[in-house]
UniProtKB/TrEMBL annotation:
It is a single-pass membrane protein. The keyword Lyase applies. HAMAP family: MltG. Belongs to the transglycosylase MltG family. This is Endolytic murein transglycosylase. Its EC number is 4.2.2.29. PROSITE patterns: PROKAR_LIPOPROTEIN. The record marks 249 as: Important for catalytic activity. The gene is mltG. Pfam families: YceG. InterPro entries: MLTG-like. Keywords: Cell membrane, Cell wall biogenesis/degradation, Lyase, Membrane, Transmembrane, Transmembrane helix. The keyword Cell wall biogenesis/degradation applies.
């Protein structure tokens, strides 16, 4: 009888414990659901109902809903770009147009969406700056100088100013790391000014606003691949270095993903990258052919002498090269060359095969 009573008491205790645990779990789940609901509701409200000051926001041509949301969040116009993206999809909103908008943190999501459908035409811009793919920072400075009152020397001095660069590092902490201030780096912002067309609505936009608009575009591009970069343990700096090498080596007929695979394969086996554009960058020259004398240049950018990546990008890569740097093809290639006459790129896994292709498509066609 005593054992039976004891067992009944234990059963009651166990039931109480199970009940308490179950109730606790239900309460925790309920709190999480409530917190999530409140968070979403908060994100759907204006970022700052009291701030009616208009901010200029430029939506680049070809921007996705995700990139628009990220841009609006970075500018402080909305609270959460992720929520914005799904709000737009849930309401089946389409037809967003590129342009420059005056938006304030006090606006609702519906108001912002309505504005984004109006699209101010870019021809009203006072200044238009077009940055082609694959050019270097010094060339970008020349383009800015041609389209603004600023002088080339003044622009380069600002771009390389350590205080200015340090300030930018604080504004773009995930994109601009301390690596860009490595003493071996020629220009800290080389590779970070995204090739695109930029419109400005002041007669003399500040150098800061010009540079930061280009950095904003690069930042948006990098954010699109953030998960892939994390999976592959790639920093934005290393990715942009690789993308710049691909950009410089690619021709109109080249397979950028295969070129990317050659560079990564060489890094894996400890081979020098031996890419001519890094030699020319070391020499501050643009030439059709690299000589044996050129290959002797003593520079941290000369990939015939150093192993691994150069200390910084050697040009400003476009989206195709960035994508190829993140997603190389799966190959066993270690060599490639472009035929002298056609520009077609041939890949090979061995030096013997590479030399045969060289004799056939380069030496014999001189």
């Amino acid at each position: 009888m005593q054992k039976l009573l004891a067992r009944q008491s234990e059963a009651k205790t166990i039931r109480k414990i199970v009940g308490i645990i179950s109730l606790s779990i239900i309460i925790i789940i309920g709190c999480l659901v409530l917190a999530g609901y409140l968070y979403v509701q908060s994100a759907l409200k204006p970022a700052n109902p009291k701030n009616h000051q208009l901010k200029k926001v430029e939506i680049p041509i070809g921007s996705s809903v995700s990139s628009i949301g990220s841009l609006l969040e970075d500018k402080g116009i909305i609270k959460n770009g992720f929520i914005f993206k799904y709000y737009v999809k849930f309401n089946n909103e389409t037809g967003f147009q590129a342009g420059t908008y005056g938006l304030s943190p006090s606006m609702t999501l519906d108001q912002i969406i309505k504005y984004l459908k109006t699209g101010k035409v870019a021809k009203n811009a006072e200044v238009k700056i077009t940055v082609p793919e694959g050019i270097q920072l010094t060339e970008i400075a020349t383009i800015i100088a041609k389209n603004t009152p600023y002088k080339n020397v003044e622009i380069m001095k600002h771009l390389d100013d350590k205080k200015f660069v340090t300030k930018l590092m604080k504004q773009y902490p995930k994109m601009l790391s301390k690596d860009i201030l490595n003493p071996e780096v020629k220009h800290p912002l080389e590779g970070y000014l995204f090739p695109a067309t930029y419109y400005f609505y002041e007669k003399k936009p500040s150098l800061d606003s010009i540079i930061m608009k280009m950095l904003d575009k690069t930042n948006i591009e990098i954010k699109k691949y953030q998960d892939d970069l994390s999976k592959q343990n790639l920093t934005p700096q290393k990715m942009l270095i690789m993308a710049s090498l691909i950009e410089e080596e690619a021709t109109s007929k080249a397979d950028r993903h295969k070129i990317s695979s050659v560079f990564y394969n060489r890094l894996k086996v400890g081979m020098p990258l031996q890419t001519d554009p890094t030699v020319l960058y070391s020499l501050n020259k643009h030439k059709d052919r690299v000589t044996y004398k050129d290959l002797e240049v003593n520079s941290p950018y000369n990939t015939y002498k150093i192993k691994g990546l150069p200390p910084s990008p050697i040009s400003n890569a476009g989206e195709l090269s960035i994508e190829a740097a993140i997603h190389p093809a799966k190959t066993n290639y270690l060599y490639f060359l472009a035929a002298s006459k056609t520009g077609k790129v041939y890949f090979s896994a061995t030096l013997a095969e590479h030399n045969q292709l060289k004799a056939k498509y380069i030496t014999s066609q001189k």
